[in-house]
Amino acid sequence: MLIDLDKLFRLDGRSAIVTGAAQGMGEAIARYLAGMGARVAVADINGEGARAVAGAIVAEGGQARSWTIDMASEAAILALVEEVHDAFGRIDILVNNAGVQNRNYLEDTTGDFWDSVLDVNLRGPAIAIREVVKRMRADRIDGRIVNIASNSAFHATTPSLYAYSTSKAGVAGLTRAAAMEVVKDGIRVNAICPGNTATPGQMTSTGPGFSPETIARFAPPIGRQGRPDDIAAAVLFATSDASAYMTGQTIVVDGGWLTC
């Protein structure tokens, strides 16, 4: 009997939160999940952008609502999770995509600078996982959590990413630790690690140490930059029944860059 692959990837009846979803990878992820039937909370610090993405999804026949969220604020994260749960009745999927890549060299990295990166990239996702897991456990939902890390978690790609690379390595560790703790509840936690991905306001385009020659170093063996759809497709896999036997994993989607 042939396998119904469409059914394997469908997300009908499920609700998802995607942070950092006003553009780029987050927008693509929101569109992919909505395209497979999920109700999507499009969350971003850019409220106007989040509303535009949610509106476009609805106009195309999907289900979405927007929220304005600062992932550096614990109170804002708590409010987001509560409001989405009230609006959708359940939370099945969390995609921690929001992130910052503030750049500074080692000798210039102050405590405040560390906080500006870690609060959004690591502390925020940890708080979001904690709050979403509470709802998943209470509702007895076999939840799926996906953290967006980076291939920078495994390789020091360039100077000035001292705090960013550290934060993303932390996300990989957070993924494994959370997966081990919640697996007994039927909740799966995995991470997607993008490489250089072309997005609006691309993180890898400006900042200390980012000359044209440095940027060229990011060209992977596959011969092109990543696209938001490349990352969204990996997230769809990790949130669907196709990945039912996988948890605590970090999937690198970087065109083979780490093989160099």
From TrEMBL:
Gene3D superfamilies: NAD(P)-binding Rossmann-like Domain. One of its GO terms (biological process) is fatty acid elongation. Belongs to the short-chain dehydrogenases/reductases (SDR) family. This is SDR family oxidoreductase. InterPro entries: NAD(P)-bd_dom_sf, Sc_DH/Rdtase_CS, SDR_fam. GO terms for molecular function: oxidoreductase activity, acting on the CH-OH group of donors, NAD or NADP as acceptor. It comes from the Bacteria.
